[in-house]
Amino acid sequence: MAARIVVLGGSFGGLTAAFELRRHLGGKARVTLLCDLERFVFIPSLPWVSMGWRRPEDITLPLAGILEPKGIEFIHEEATGVDAAASKVSTRTREIEYDYLVIATGPALAFSAVPGLGPEQGYTECIFLLEQALRCRRAWEGLLEDPGPVVVGSVQGVSCFGPAYEYVFEVDAELRRRRIRHRVPITFVTSEPYVGHFGIGGLGTSRRMMEDVFAARDIKVAANISVEEFTPDEVRLADGTRLPFKLSMFAPPMTGVKAVSHLGNPKGFIPVDENYRHRDHRNILSVGVAVAMAPPEPTPVPTGVPKTGYMTVVMAKDAAKTIAAEILGRPTPETGPLSAVCLMDMGNTAAYMKASPVLPPREEAKLKAGIHYRWLKAGFEKYYLWKIKHGLTRLP
Q: How far apart are the C-alpha atoms of 13 and 21, rounded to whole Å?
């Protein structure tokens, strides 16, 4: 009888896990993927959507069209709960039994962490979801018609710092291209101890490099600071500083998704072993942002550890190997420490980053900038969309 495997989530982790399980197990498993979205979104390109440099159709693919040709069942529904004791996933219309469950849900965005934070109940934009990026684009278009101060950043508790860096550099570059940069003061606010920390304790000379870049672009920096609240036209910092804005984009903290948060730590992230198995439920595995990961060091203002798309894909491949080995009666595969590889857009150039392992001390740390990395980032977007469309998961 084929093993019943349910995957929650249709992004990097969920798709990689589903394709790898099908490849390793063939007819020995029935793989089902649940997702509340109909389309895969290439999340790294959302800052470009917010700037008007990409359209939704440029960076999305229909999940049913990707999965069903590979023999993977797709259910377009949101998981509302998981009963680990009974091995069941609930949606609004059904219960689905599983032998193995892979949690690749990504996070919930905790806009309630700071008064006035967020695009719906607050006064700030966000670019972590497609609809948010499209809303941010409208705010950007309004700024171009009526220029004024821009404040970009990450509040306390944030773990995903990259989009804020990309956005602030892209705004600067586009304003210069339009020759209106002198009309738009820009401030970057971050809970990191210093710019270039990135939630991973820095990367080689990242602090020096980022400080130089912000200075060269005349972007003011407020680091190692908490945000007290947002008003309709002002960011209020914990030290009493008031920053007026016409446009404000801030990254929020993240928590575990409601359907699975009861399986996690106090923030709802899933505790896992070295093979990404839940520490209390061996038939539940978790990958990507949903995984609990301790920061490398305490910081004066709380920060978290980012889980990049590269890290998520590695986790998903290892989790699939673990499940396949158990079903096929093979030894549990060994896993190594996670590494991170990232291409960060900077508007008119880009940076290549590699941290191996992701948390210090490291065997290898690289940080380089150049226009060719921007070309590489654009090329990788097209390559990854082609690859995932055809059910391929090999790392570059």
A: 12
Q: Give the chain's mean pLDDT.
A: 97
Give catalytic residues, as residue numbers: 160, 342
Whole-number Å distance between alpha carbons of 223 and 225: 5
Tracing tokens 């820095």 back to the chain, one arrives at 202
Beta strands in 303-396 (DSSP E): 340-345, 350-356, 364-370
Q: What is the structure's pLDDT at 394? A: 87
Peptide bond into 337 cis (omega under 30): no
Cα–Cα separations (whole angstroms), residue 23 to 198, 368, 394:
35, 36, 12
What is the C-alpha end-to-end distance of the chain, expressed in Å?
Answer: 35
Do the beta carbons of residue 387 and residue 309 sit within 8 Å? no
Could you tell me which residues come within 8 angstroms of residue 329 by beta carbon, excluding any fewer than 6 positions away? none
Share of the chain above pLDDT 90, in %: 98
User: With 90 as the cut, is the pLDDT of residue 296 above it?
Assistant: no
pLDDT computed for residue 395 by the predictor: 79
Total domains present in the chain: 2
Residue where one domain finishes, among candidates 287, 321, 336: 336
Look up residue 271 and give its DSSP letter: P
Helix (H) or strand (E) holding 231: strand 227-231
Residue 176 placed within a domain: yes
Please state the φ and ψ torsions of residue 314, each to the nearest 5 degrees: -60, -45
Q: What's the mean pLDDT in 212-223?
A: 98
Q: Do the bridges between strand 186-190 and strand 73-75 make them parallel or antiparallel, or are there none, so unpaired?
A: unpaired
Average pLDDT estimate for 95-112: 98
Residue located via tokens 């550099």? 169
CATH of residue 131's domain is 3.50.50.60
Q: Give the pLDDT mean for 320-331.
A: 98
